[in-house]
Amino acid sequence: MFLRRSAAALAATTVLCAVAAPLAAASPVTAPGGAPAAAGKGDAGLYGEADPTYDGVWRQSLALLAQDTAGVTPAKKSVGWLAAQQCDDGSFASYRADPGAPCGKKTVADTNATAAAVQALSVLGGHGDAVGKAVDWLKSVQNDDGGWGYNPGSPSDANSVSVVIGALEQTGQDPERTTAGKKDATPYDALLGLRLGCDAKAGERGAFAYQPDKKGALAPNTDATAAATLAGEGDGFVVEPLEKDENEAVEALACGGGGGDRKDPEDAAEAGAAYLTGVLKKNDWHLMSALPGSEDQPDYGNTADAVLALAAGGHGDAARSTVGWLEKHHGDWDKHASSPAALGQLVLAAHATGTDPRDFGGTDLVKRLNATGPEPAAVEEPKSRAEEEKEDEGDTVTLVSTVAAFLVAGIGIGILLSGRGKRKQ
Question: What contacts 276, CB < 8 A, 6 or more positions away?
Fold first, then answer.
């Protein structure tokens, strides 16, 4: 929010200076927690009570990122728990029963956990070496097509590629310069290879597939589309909040005239957002589960992911309508209501749309998230959006006044020097 508003202040400064002196900036669906289990030796800082075998690093990373956006400084041991999951080669496994013991041959590293941890540790700061090793590991297991699969060596999938792109962007890496294979393929090459283009059915164009099927055919997948759309916008899990009235119209994939199948990440993201918006509208602003046997049930996590993707593209109306549905129905997310990952996703969706996570449909998401782990080191007193806007307006006025004062001073000096010159004559 501050960055976008600063642009207005800078614009005003540029105009004044010009007058005075012409010389003169993925995701996969939340993993199931499983049945409660006894805490392992190094689980004192872990969020949530469910078995962390499959989602420990993932949920911890989302929880820490969400807390950071809400002005919460997590407990040192919570951050330490995440950092301790890293293996010597730089990778992260979903969970290690004993973080004090070295990773072994049976430790299954995965790109999603590693990329999520990179985003969290990078945002929190103080773990530069760990982040650097993790990024190096991700680059070392990049597939020849430029992408990543869930585990090293597995075929690239849209969700894994997208979450790694988010990690690269978060750490200042350029995905378009992160290449692999004889053709120097980039992550976007792999991602765009999973997009449904103009040869697809009209209602499926712009969507992304998770992976090709056995025959190489692509089928639209809303989860993969949300992840890929976010990555195409160059964002990770933390999206800069929408301005109050910000709303960029979605542009569907334009076929005909030779321009519909351009392989540009931003164009693909726009088309992906258009596809998502169409599906969301049909379902009263939420997405449905794609899991066999659950097709008639809402997919809350994927809906939250769609909010991030739409907000990243500036599609305010669609993002706000979708987060509005979550505000009304998030209480129905019974099975994951106390899951740190689920709560983290909701906080991140609220943040992206400028919605108050402390009054999200009457629920204080931040308080509930904090309660799933160790007591935070500090909690900032939140400011209302009106207070933030007033402060930003005050900063702009102060900046403009300061520049104007310098200009007046400059004019005065000019007059003084001119007078001195005349007297010398």
Answer: 222, 225, 226, 229, 287, 306, 309, 310, 318
**pLDDT tens by residue, 106-148:** 899 999 999 999 999 999 999 999 999 999 999 999 999 999 9
**Whole-angstrom Cα distance, residue 268 to residue 412?**
54
Tokens found for residue 96: 């290690």
The CA–CA distances, whole Å, from 349 to 74, 113, 240 equal 19, 20, 11
Coil/strand/helix, residue 247: coil
Task: Dig out the tokens for 7 from the structure.
Answer: 């642009």
Say whether pLDDT at 83 is over 50: yes
**Token pair belonging to 419:** 């007078």
Residue 180: Cβ-neighbour burial (10 angstroms; 0-12, 13-18, 19+): buried
Rg of the chain taking only CA atoms, in angstroms: 24
How many Cβ atoms are within 10 Å of 29's Cβ, its own excluded? Answer: 19
Residue 401 contacts residue 13 (beta carbons within 8 Å) = no
pTM above 0.90, yes or no: no
Helices (H), 283-384: 300-312, 316-329, 340-353, 365-370
22-59 confidence digits (pLDDT tens): 322 233 333 333 333 445 656 889 999 989 999 999 99
